[in-house]
Design brief:
By secondary structure, the protein is mainly beta. Helices cover 5% and strands 52% of the residues. The protein contains one helix and 38 strands. Strands 12, 13, 15, 16, 18, 19, 22, 24 and 25 form a nine-stranded mixed β-sheet that branches. Strands 3, 4, 6, 7, 8 and 9 form a six-stranded antiparallel β-sheet that branches. Strands 17, 20, 21, 23, 26 and 27 form a six-stranded mixed β-sheet that branches.
Length: 434
């Protein structure tokens, strides 16, 4: 029994001695730096270390992040350095590189030596972008949010300098793909010549680790339809109605950009008019589209005038809309009767003095005709031509017999601001005499 115990103890001691002999010294001075002369160019991460010419295994460890499945073995006769592509590092995390002695067949035979911790934070995505037309081109401006807190300040892969993030302007047009139209810049504005809607503008923000798309501007073309009333009374409210349709560009990854129709709300609409023949077009009313691209703009009707409806060139965050204009349409105005009747009411006694009056807009000067209804001939007959001053006319007469009578005023047309103004007739004015 003692002999068996002694043999077992000797075997255990021998196994311990064998494991200790197989434990190799771990590498030292593990460092990381950007590969190549243009440090920070995103070409790769150069790992270097020191050892006694042993074979090595290189891995990437996540620090509060998941470790990627990257393993590289370097032979004993190879240099003590290796370039890891940036694509091997997951974005927006904290990592370090671990180097140990080992081979793919024999496994790891030393403790791990690790580099300093570094982050792989990508660029800050550009925020709201806006466009300002400049001749046949456009000036793009964009904002960039404040970068999140750096939890590994001054790590060995931090790129020095105040502006380490660059922006590449990209444009997509119908039938083409998103493509760069200029070099990368550190500025937050870019003048793009000869750029007209429709298009999709985006920014490709890039730093040493990755790229992100943002800062989008839709360049839209527009078309507008509309109608105004052909005939309307002077000074009443009318409605200008129609619809705005825009064409926008949609670009998907690795496919050609396509143009599609949209009817957004919030597109500004302006009603233009010519005050006098040959005059310049000036705004008469303003509004904007609602859901479905429809608009309904109330407007107080004035003298007879042509109107046209336009979408002006306008910009808001992320959108630039090109102008469009409907065909001109003419609204003929008609004199509006504001009031008409008998002073004191329509019930009178025989022999009373009766004052019949009318008031119209606009406050015109003219000559109006008072008519009465003839029951025998069943026709309206002229009684008296009465001057109208500042839109008001009246006539005083005495009742001579009892009965029921009917009167009306006939207001002729006129010229106003070089265009015809339609005349009108008041409603029938009944008069009862006892």
């Amino acid at each position: 029994m003692r002999r068996v115990l002694a043999v077992g103890l000797a075997a255990l001691l021998g196994a311990s001695a064998l494991t200790a002999c197989q434990s190799d010294p771990m590498p030292t001075d593990v460092g990381v730096a950007w590969a190549g002369e243009s440090a920070g160019g995103g070409g790769g991460v150069l790992v270097s270390w020191k050892d006694d010419g042993a074979p090595n295994r290189i891995t990437i460890e996540g620090v509060l992040s998941s470790s990627p499945s990257y393993v590289k073995y370097v032979g004993a006769g190879e240099p003590n350095s290796w370039e890891i592509p940036t694509s091997a590092f997951p974005p927006d995390g904290n990592y370090r590189v671990a180097v140990a002695t080992g081979t793919s067949q024999g496994g790891v035979t030393s403790k791990l030596a690790r580099s300093e911790v570094f982050d792989t934070d990508g660029p800050v995505r550009p925020g709201g972008a806006s466009a300002t037309p400049m001749g046949r081109g456009v000036l793009m401006k964009w904002s960039v949010p404040v970068a999140p807190q750096d939890f590994t300040p001054n790590d060995p892969l931090d790129v020095k300098g105040a502006k380490t993030q660059r922006y590449v302007p990209m444009v997509g047009r119908p039938g083409g793909t998103m493509r760069a139209i200029g070099p990368a810049t550190t500025s937050t504005r870019q003048l793009i010549k000869s750029l007209q809607p429709p298009y999709l503008f985006q920014l490709r923000a890039q730093n040493e680790w990755s790229t992100r798309m943002g800062g989008e501007v839709l360049g839209l073309t527009s078309s507008i339809s509309g109608s105004v009333p052909a005939l309307a009374q002077y000074s009443i409210q009318v409605h200008v109605r129609g619809r705005v349709v825009v064409q926008e560009v949609v670009c998907e990854a690795d496919t050609a950009c396509v143009q599609r129709r949209a009817t957004p709300a919030g597109v500004p609409v302006v009603v233009l008019t010519q005050v006098t023949p040959g005059a310049r077009w000036t705004p008469a009313a303003r509004g904007s589209t609602t859901a479905g691209g429809h608009y309904d703009i109330p407007m107080v009707n004035g003298p007879s005038r042509p109107y046209k409806i336009t979408v002006p060139a306008y910009t808001r965050a992320g959108v630039l809309t090109g102008p469009s204009t409907s065909r001109p349409a003419y609204t003929k105005s008609v004199v509006r009767v504001a009031a008409a009747g008998f002073v004191g009411g329509p019930a009178k006694r025989r022999g009373d003095n009766v004052s019949v009056y009318t008031t119209v807009t606009p406050r015109m000067n003219s000559t109006v005709m008072l008519q009465s209804w003839n029951r025998q001939t069943r026709r309206w007959v002229n009684l008296k031509a009465v001057p109208m001053r500042k839109g008001q006319a009246s006539l005083l007469f005495k009742t001579s017999q009892a009965g029921s009578f009917a009167y009306r005023w006939v207001i002729p047309g006129a010229m106003m601001f070089g265009r015809p103004l339609g005349g009108t007739i008041t409603p029938q004015l009944p008069l009862t005499v006892r």
